[in-house]
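Predict the 3D structure for this chain.
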Amino acid sequence: MRPLSIWVVSDGRTGIENQSLGLAEAIADLTPATISRHVVRWKPAFDRLPTALKQMWMLQQGQHLLHAPPPDIWIATGRATLPLSVRMKGKTFVVQTQDPRWKHAAYDLIVAPEHDGLSGPNVFSITGSPHRITPERLKAAASAFADKIAPLPHPRVAVMIGGTSKAFDLPLDHAAILADLIAETVEEAGGSLLVTFSRRTPLLSQTVMTQRLSALPGLIWDGAGENPLFAFLDAADHILVTEDSANMVTEAASTGKPVHVLPMVPLKPQTKFTQLHKALQDHGAARPFEGRLEHWTYTPLRETARAASAILDAVRRR
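Done. Predicted structure below.
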């Protein structure tokens, strides 16, 4: 049987691309497939135009995708990809992740977070966001950091820090409070830290947290070199994650390890995030962090694999 060809299409940002790439990899775990990654970028003068007004001549990168032989499956994430995705309908099986908020009927399947409240005949709802985390990929990544992680004492605590968004903020004073609480908890447990920051983490907040956490045993990734996140999640006994990112908390909940949710400073009412965190608590994966490293067990969240199976079934029915 010929392998399925899958295109992963995004604006190239890691957090955005990983949603499509995770789905593609999960499909490839179910059936032979080849995966190619493609970036869509708009010329700066047109990037912020409403999606409906964008024309193909405004593209800086990605126009060739409309003229190349189409793949069997097109999986796209992000606002930048929408004008291309709707033009690919009928040429290939088009999957869009997240709520596109535009022309919902113009995609073969939308893999949307349940907390967005989107419904329709072509909507497949999942808890959180699709991602690349699987036990096998975590193990494969762990070897590159094994020498640095192996001497660290247990409990090992992976800490995933987000940052400023439309919904949340991480100002300097709050970052300091979080860092002190994390440090006190890990020190009391006699453990160690495995810390990563996101691109959205304000530089001053990252600096103060690094200063206040660096005295403890562990590793704090400064963004240079290979991303150790997969290795950190593989090695962790507990995971602390800020509440601002559906991607990060869903990734953490896929490990089967206790997920402690760190509070951020809300910038507006958080109905959707409240729904997401309640769903993860109901699943048994996550609890608010209260300065204790409690241990519990649950069935790891496998929403990406569930969505991949639904995509494959839909493609085979065509």
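The longest strand covers residues 4-10.
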